[in-house]
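Extended Data, panel c. Modelled sequence:
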Amino acid sequence: MKKEKILFFGTSKFATAALSEIIEKKYNLIGVVTTPDRPAGRGLKIKESEVKIFAKKCNLKIYQPENLDDDNFLSQIKELKPDLIIVIAFKKLPKSIWETPQHGTFNLHASILPNYRGAAPINWAIINGEKETGLSTFFITENIDYGDILFQEKMTIDINDNFKSLHDKLMDQSKNITIKTIKAILNKKVTPKKQGESNKIKKAPKIFKKDTIIDWKKESHEIYNFIRGMSPYPGARTKITINKNNYDLIITEVSDYKKLDKTYNNRINLELRNKKLIIKNKGGSFSINKLKISGKKEMSGLEFNNGFLKNIENYYFI
């Protein structure tokens, strides 16, 4: 019996869980395609993708094309003759690649499509206060995240979930849906379904630095969701003035949202309660667990209070 050849495309840590499961289930994985090594960080040290680091440990064949449309790379793909291509956390593939395998090319996306198409579905689901999200596998087409759905699995979003915790839960869940999709495709036991369309579909665009600034005029639960969606990376940004000194803050972890009977005005109230820094605003409160002054090391809310706010009433957020 022919053992179909699988080629895997991925970059970030999110893709490594499914890749690990493909190896565990002993599929015929003929190689891994990931991004080229790049200088990163203040020291501009050469950084390998998480998928490459994992693939090296597993002694997998690794391809790192600078250009996916490069003729030499396309020739390599055709010589490999993959029967199925799997894409998780990777950039858009040219048609010349995704149409190559006889069984097609499928992508795994971290949302219940068609909602939250785009680069940051986990972040935006939390920011928008969704109660659930999930995973979708679908056949790739020319339009990003628009292909026919193969399988979907839902997951509840907890009130204390942030980007990292939900990312890790979905990453773990990705193992099951990836294997389920592979089996169904290779055994021809799946019927792809068209994605629904409406003008109410929510989007998940890439997040830039300008998108990370907290709007303190919003309701407290909206602020809480926004910070969670940016936590711990890239972090929600704000400015605070303390005794005429201005500081750029990045809030990286919050928890314990509570709705309050008392409605506060636009003034942001900070208080220390049980060694936790509590923020109150417009009918709600939550704990600031971790934050940092831009360019400095991360600190706890208690440390920030003791170092900057103790016995001080003259402060306000900008």
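The CA atoms of residues 151 and 180 lie 8 Å apart. This feature is highlighted in the accompanying rendering.
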